[in-house]
Amino acid sequence: MESCIDEILITEEEIQNRVRSLADQINRDYQGKEIRVVGILRGAFIFMSDLVRNIQVPVSVDFMAISSYQEGMESCGIVRILKDLDKPITRQHVLVVEDIVDTGLTLQHLKEVLATRDPASLKVCSLLNKGERRQVMDLKVDYVGFEIPNRFVVGYGLDFAERYRNYPFLFVLKPEYYRNGG
Ligand code: 5GP
Asked: Which CATH number goes with the domain that contains 144?
Protein backbone atom coordinates (compact mmCIF):
# COMPACT_ATOMS: atom_id res chain seq x y z
CA MET A 1 0.00 0.00 0.00
CA GLU A 2 1.32 3.48 -0.89
CA SER A 3 2.24 5.64 2.09
CA CYS A 4 0.58 9.00 2.62
CA ILE A 5 3.60 10.27 4.60
CA ASP A 6 5.74 12.92 2.96
CA GLU A 7 7.96 13.65 5.95
CA ILE A 8 7.98 12.76 9.63
CA LEU A 9 8.54 16.03 11.54
CA ILE A 10 8.55 14.73 15.11
CA THR A 11 8.99 11.06 16.01
CA GLU A 12 7.05 9.14 18.62
CA GLU A 13 10.11 9.00 20.87
CA GLU A 14 10.70 12.75 20.61
CA ILE A 15 7.05 13.41 21.48
CA GLN A 16 7.07 11.07 24.48
CA ASN A 17 10.31 12.57 25.86
CA ARG A 18 9.00 16.09 25.47
CA VAL A 19 5.63 15.26 27.06
CA ARG A 20 7.46 13.88 30.10
CA SER A 21 9.58 17.02 30.49
CA LEU A 22 6.53 19.28 30.08
CA ALA A 23 4.80 17.29 32.82
CA ASP A 24 7.89 17.60 35.06
CA GLN A 25 7.76 21.37 34.66
CA ILE A 26 4.00 21.41 35.36
CA ASN A 27 4.50 19.21 38.45
CA ARG A 28 7.03 21.71 39.79
CA ASP A 29 4.94 24.79 38.96
CA TYR A 30 1.72 23.43 40.50
CA GLN A 31 3.20 21.83 43.61
CA GLY A 32 0.62 21.90 46.45
CA LYS A 33 -2.19 22.82 44.05
CA GLU A 34 -4.87 20.94 42.19
CA ILE A 35 -5.23 21.39 38.40
CA ARG A 36 -8.37 21.45 36.29
CA VAL A 37 -7.05 20.30 32.92
CA VAL A 38 -9.25 21.55 30.08
CA GLY A 39 -8.67 19.68 26.81
CA ILE A 40 -9.68 21.29 23.55
CA LEU A 41 -11.40 18.74 21.34
CA ARG A 42 -10.63 17.09 19.18
CA GLY A 43 -6.99 17.72 18.32
CA ALA A 44 -5.63 17.70 21.89
CA PHE A 45 -7.14 14.42 23.09
CA ILE A 46 -4.08 12.20 22.62
CA PHE A 47 -1.59 14.78 23.88
CA MET A 48 -3.76 15.45 26.92
CA SER A 49 -4.08 11.77 27.80
CA ASP A 50 -0.28 11.31 27.68
CA LEU A 51 0.31 14.55 29.58
CA VAL A 52 -2.08 13.87 32.47
CA ARG A 53 -0.61 10.40 32.96
CA ASN A 54 2.68 12.10 33.78
CA ILE A 55 1.21 14.73 36.11
CA GLN A 56 1.60 13.90 39.76
CA VAL A 57 -0.34 16.69 41.47
CA PRO A 58 -4.11 16.08 41.79
CA VAL A 59 -5.96 16.68 38.49
CA SER A 60 -9.50 16.71 37.23
CA VAL A 61 -10.33 16.91 33.54
CA ASP A 62 -12.97 18.63 31.45
CA PHE A 63 -13.32 19.31 27.72
CA MET A 64 -14.39 22.02 25.35
CA ALA A 65 -14.95 21.83 21.61
CA ILE A 66 -14.37 24.86 19.49
CA SER A 67 -14.73 25.44 15.79
CA SER A 68 -12.16 27.71 14.22
CA TYR A 69 -11.41 25.90 10.98
CA GLN A 70 -13.74 24.54 8.37
CA GLU A 71 -12.87 21.06 7.16
CA GLY A 72 -9.64 22.25 5.65
CA MET A 73 -6.45 24.08 6.43
CA GLU A 74 -7.19 27.79 6.72
CA SER A 75 -8.60 29.65 9.71
CA CYS A 76 -11.91 31.36 8.96
CA GLY A 77 -11.39 33.71 11.92
CA ILE A 78 -14.73 32.78 13.47
CA VAL A 79 -14.54 30.95 16.79
CA ARG A 80 -17.60 29.17 18.12
CA ILE A 81 -18.04 27.05 21.25
CA LEU A 82 -19.52 23.75 20.11
CA LYS A 83 -19.28 22.09 23.52
CA ASP A 84 -18.81 24.00 26.75
CA LEU A 85 -17.25 22.79 30.00
CA ASP A 86 -19.39 20.49 32.14
CA LYS A 87 -18.28 22.04 35.44
CA PRO A 88 -17.63 25.63 36.63
CA ILE A 89 -13.99 26.70 36.92
CA THR A 90 -14.47 29.35 39.61
CA ARG A 91 -11.40 29.42 41.93
CA GLN A 92 -9.83 26.48 40.02
CA HIS A 93 -6.29 26.41 38.64
CA VAL A 94 -7.11 25.91 34.97
CA LEU A 95 -4.61 24.49 32.50
CA VAL A 96 -5.89 24.59 28.92
CA VAL A 97 -4.37 21.86 26.74
CA GLU A 98 -4.27 22.66 23.02
CA ASP A 99 -2.87 20.78 20.04
CA ILE A 100 -1.45 23.74 18.15
CA VAL A 101 -1.40 27.52 18.27
CA ASP A 102 -1.23 28.92 14.76
CA THR A 103 -2.66 32.42 14.16
CA GLY A 104 -3.62 32.49 17.86
CA LEU A 105 -7.20 33.60 17.14
CA THR A 106 -8.76 30.49 18.67
CA LEU A 107 -6.71 30.63 21.85
CA GLN A 108 -7.18 34.35 22.34
CA HIS A 109 -10.93 33.98 22.16
CA LEU A 110 -10.89 30.96 24.44
CA LYS A 111 -8.75 32.70 27.06
CA GLU A 112 -11.11 35.68 27.06
CA VAL A 113 -14.12 33.43 27.59
CA LEU A 114 -12.48 31.44 30.40
CA ALA A 115 -11.08 34.52 32.15
CA THR A 116 -14.63 35.84 32.68
CA ARG A 117 -15.39 32.74 34.79
CA ASP A 118 -13.05 33.69 37.65
CA PRO A 119 -10.50 30.86 37.68
CA ALA A 120 -7.80 31.08 40.39
CA SER A 121 -5.28 30.92 37.54
CA LEU A 122 -5.36 30.30 33.79
CA LYS A 123 -2.45 28.83 31.85
CA VAL A 124 -2.05 27.20 28.47
CA CYS A 125 -0.06 24.17 27.38
CA SER A 126 0.16 23.61 23.63
CA LEU A 127 1.87 20.65 22.00
CA LEU A 128 2.86 22.74 18.98
CA ASN A 129 3.43 26.38 18.20
CA LYS A 130 3.68 27.97 14.77
CA GLY A 131 5.15 31.27 15.91
CA GLU A 132 5.71 32.66 12.43
CA ARG A 133 1.97 32.50 11.64
CA ARG A 134 0.89 34.45 14.73
CA GLN A 135 -1.65 37.24 14.24
CA VAL A 136 -2.29 37.88 17.96
CA MET A 137 1.08 39.21 19.06
CA ASP A 138 0.70 39.46 22.84
CA LEU A 139 -0.72 35.97 23.33
CA LYS A 140 1.02 34.02 26.10
CA VAL A 141 1.44 30.27 25.71
CA ASP A 142 2.88 29.11 29.03
CA TYR A 143 4.10 25.65 27.98
CA VAL A 144 5.04 24.74 24.40
CA GLY A 145 6.04 21.24 23.33
CA PHE A 146 7.62 22.04 19.98
CA GLU A 147 8.10 25.12 17.84
CA ILE A 148 7.35 24.07 14.23
CA PRO A 149 7.70 25.74 10.83
CA ASN A 150 4.76 26.84 8.73
CA ARG A 151 3.70 23.40 7.49
CA PHE A 152 0.34 21.70 7.93
CA VAL A 153 0.96 18.74 10.23
CA VAL A 154 -1.13 15.71 11.11
CA GLY A 155 -0.88 12.75 13.48
CA TYR A 156 -0.82 12.38 17.30
CA GLY A 157 -4.39 13.72 17.51
CA LEU A 158 -4.17 16.26 14.69
CA ASP A 159 -6.24 15.65 11.58
CA PHE A 160 -6.79 16.59 8.01
CA ALA A 161 -10.48 16.13 7.12
CA GLU A 162 -10.80 14.00 10.33
CA ARG A 163 -8.12 11.49 9.30
CA TYR A 164 -4.63 10.64 10.57
CA ARG A 165 -5.29 11.39 14.28
CA ASN A 166 -4.29 7.82 15.16
CA TYR A 167 -0.66 8.03 13.99
CA PRO A 168 1.72 8.15 17.01
CA PHE A 169 4.06 10.72 15.39
CA LEU A 170 3.67 14.11 13.69
CA PHE A 171 4.05 14.27 9.93
CA VAL A 172 3.34 16.14 6.72
CA LEU A 173 1.11 14.48 4.14
CA LYS A 174 2.08 14.04 0.53
CA PRO A 175 0.61 16.98 -1.45
CA GLU A 176 -1.89 14.81 -3.35
CA TYR A 177 -3.51 13.80 -0.05
CA TYR A 178 -4.23 17.45 0.85
CA ARG A 179 -5.59 18.09 -2.66
CA ASN A 180 -7.91 15.11 -2.51
CA GLY A 181 -9.42 16.21 0.81
CA GLY A 182 -7.67 13.62 2.97
P1 5GP B 1 -5.47 29.33 15.23
O2 5GP B 1 -6.75 29.96 15.67
O3 5GP B 1 -4.35 29.46 16.20
O4 5GP B 1 -5.08 29.82 13.85
O5 5GP B 1 -5.80 27.83 14.96
C6 5GP B 1 -5.66 26.84 15.88
C7 5GP B 1 -6.35 25.59 15.38
O8 5GP B 1 -6.13 25.41 13.96
C9 5GP B 1 -5.75 24.35 15.99
O10 5GP B 1 -6.38 24.04 17.22
C11 5GP B 1 -5.95 23.31 14.91
O12 5GP B 1 -7.25 22.74 15.03
C13 5GP B 1 -5.89 24.07 13.61
N14 5GP B 1 -4.54 23.98 12.99
C15 5GP B 1 -3.64 24.98 12.82
N16 5GP B 1 -2.51 24.54 12.23
C17 5GP B 1 -2.69 23.22 12.03
C18 5GP B 1 -1.86 22.18 11.48
O19 5GP B 1 -0.70 22.35 11.03
N20 5GP B 1 -2.40 20.93 11.44
C21 5GP B 1 -3.66 20.65 11.90
N22 5GP B 1 -4.08 19.40 11.80
N23 5GP B 1 -4.46 21.60 12.44
C24 5GP B 1 -3.98 22.87 12.50
From this structure: 3.40.50.2020
